[in-house]
């Protein structure tokens, strides 16, 4: 063994202890660590001939690279839809690295850690009040979940005319209907060879809505003259957290032949609260659903899962099977994740979610969801009181889409946000909604409190003054 490796092996406990201390310090100071920074790295770093050993490497990391770390698991990081990490999920995440399993099979001499993944999916189905007619698995994020689901949808589409697209390639136009797809779904159409511009945009409901207009949807379906299609629907659009009407879509399924996919990356968690579960009513009728865990479940990146109806498992295997040999036996008995999703080797990605679900239960998650949604409303009210701002859409769940008051201020929105983010107390994302520049604040972090909103509003008022708006 290399001598430096040997030395590290002897000193393992001390190394992990130092890393732990450092982690605790970061987490204990999330409140004061900046949400933005301007640190850079040295692009000419050379690889050492001889290693430094872990402790020296940690020192170098702290000197040069740790300053790049922003308070993204902190309470005022409202950009994108960034969840934090619960204590239990961090413990689970550490252990996933330490156990370092290759999570593929549920029955194998080389390890059966996929049973833990099955168990976790089952807990998630209970949390979201979904039936066990779905089979699920973990992937890195909602983008890969959409990819997995739409990959199977693509195979389904080919089968409607007796073709095997997975084997033969795509030989006919695949019809996709969608109203407000997330950019990642459009990216998936590109990655799947369907084409990022090859989808038909269905109207949204009149007024300040991003949800699909079911009447226009039926019109567009009729124009297809009985051809099959794939519907990409939304449970929580990023700008305004709007939801398609799943009960109405479910009724259309009785009349028309389509694959129904729901992108519920964060919005699916509406199911956890009695106050919001009506938003996802009827979603169990879908063929496939995408849900992120690194958002509202508050587990560390990278974590999401897909749910695909068990009845489609053969299509799923045709799409992702790792060899050309025919699949032997009952796929659910000899189940192996490597045949049903993009990755072959996989970490035990379910473990952080398993820890967190066990540690906090239904009630813990209901509290997180209802705290986030209450804070979104609180922030919306505080914005109006602060003057100088206007909401761009009603606050339906946890995302607040707003802008500077008045059209004359449209030209100041980018500068305002850049300055606000620069100050490092809060981070939000720019957006465009109904052709106007806006800002999005997303509440999903379990740590955020009313006190944070107070700090954020003060920072925003100060930034208005700085810019003389
Ligand atoms: C965040 C998000 C995605 C993409 O998720 P990643 O985890 O970043 O891959 C897809 N759809 C919706 C609705 C989202 O909010």
TrEMBL record:
Q: Which SUPFAM superfamilies does this chain map to?
A: PLP-dependent transferases
Q: Which UniProt keywords apply?
A: Decarboxylase, Lyase, Pyridoxal phosphate
Highest taxon, organism lineage: Bacteria
Q: Which residues form a coiled coil?
A: none
Required cofactor(s):
pyridoxal 5'-phosphate
> Which InterPro entries does this UniProt record tie to the protein?
Aromatic_deC, PyrdxlP-dep_de-COase, PyrdxlP-dep_Trfase, PyrdxlP-dep_Trfase_major, PyrdxlP-dep_Trfase_small
Kindly list the residue ranges recorded as spanning the membrane. Answer: none
**Similarity comment:** Belongs to the group II decarboxylase family.
Supply the name of the protein.
Pyridoxal phosphate-dependent decarboxylase family protein
Origin species = Flavobacterium branchiicola
């Amino acid at each position: 063994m290399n001598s430096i490796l040997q030395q590290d092996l002897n000193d393992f406990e001390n190394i992990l202890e130092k890393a732990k201390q450092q982690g605790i310090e970061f987490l204990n100071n999330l409140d004061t660590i900046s949400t933005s920074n301007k640190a850079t790295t040295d692009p000419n770093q050379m690889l050492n001939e001889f290693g430094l050993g872990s402790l020296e490497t940690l020192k170098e990391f702290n000197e040069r690279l740790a300053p790049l770390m922003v308070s993204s698991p902190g309470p005022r990081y409202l950009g994108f839809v960034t969840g934090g990490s619960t204590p239990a999920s961090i413990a689970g995440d550490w252990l996933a690295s330490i156990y370092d399993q290759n999570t593929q099979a549920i029955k194998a001499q080389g390890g059966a850690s996929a049973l833990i993944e099955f168990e976790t999916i089952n807990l998630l189905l209970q949390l979201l009040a979904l039936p066990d007619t779905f089979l699920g698995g973990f992937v890195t994020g909602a983008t890969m979940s959409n990819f997995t689901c739409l990959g199977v949808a693509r195979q389904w589409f080919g089968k409607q005319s007796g073709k095997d697209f997975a084997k033969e390639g795509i030989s006919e136009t695949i019809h996709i209907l969608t109203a407000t797809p997330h950019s990642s779904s459009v990216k998936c159409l590109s990655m799947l060879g369907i084409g990022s511009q090859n989808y038909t945009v269905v109207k949204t409901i009149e007024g300040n809505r991003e949800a699909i207009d079911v009447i226009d949807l039926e019109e567009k379906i009729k124009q297809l003259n009985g051809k099959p299609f794939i519907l990409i629907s939304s449970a929580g659009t990023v700008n305004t957290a709007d939801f398609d009407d799943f009960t109405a879509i479910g009724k259309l399924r009785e009349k028309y032949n389509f694959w129904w996919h729901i992108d519920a990356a964060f919005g699916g968690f509406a199911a956890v609260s009695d106050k919001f579960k009506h938003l996802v009513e009827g979603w169990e009728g879908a063929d496939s659903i995408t849900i992120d865990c690194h958002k509202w479940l508050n587990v560390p990146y990278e974590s999401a899962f897909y749910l695909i109806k068990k009845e489609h498992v053969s299509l799923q295997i045709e799409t992702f099977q790792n060899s050309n040999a025919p699949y032997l036996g009952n796929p659910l008995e000899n189940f192996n994740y490597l045949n049903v999703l993009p990755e072959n080797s996989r970490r035990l990605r379910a473990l952080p979610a398993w820890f967190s679900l066990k540690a906090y239960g239904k009630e813990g998650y209901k509290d997180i969801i209802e705290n986030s949604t209450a804070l979104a409303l609180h922030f919306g009210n505080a914005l109006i009181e602060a003057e100088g701002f206007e909401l761009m859409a009603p606050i339906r769940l946890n995302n607040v889409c707003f802008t500077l008051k008045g059209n004359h201020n449209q030209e100041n929105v980018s500068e305002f946000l850049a300055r606000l983010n620069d100050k490092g107390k809060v981070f939000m994302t720019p957006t465009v909604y109904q052709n106007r520049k806006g800002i999005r604040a997303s509440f999903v972090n379990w740590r955020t409190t009313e006190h944070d909103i107070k700090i954020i509003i003060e920072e925003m008022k100060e930034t208005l003054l700085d810019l003389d708006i």
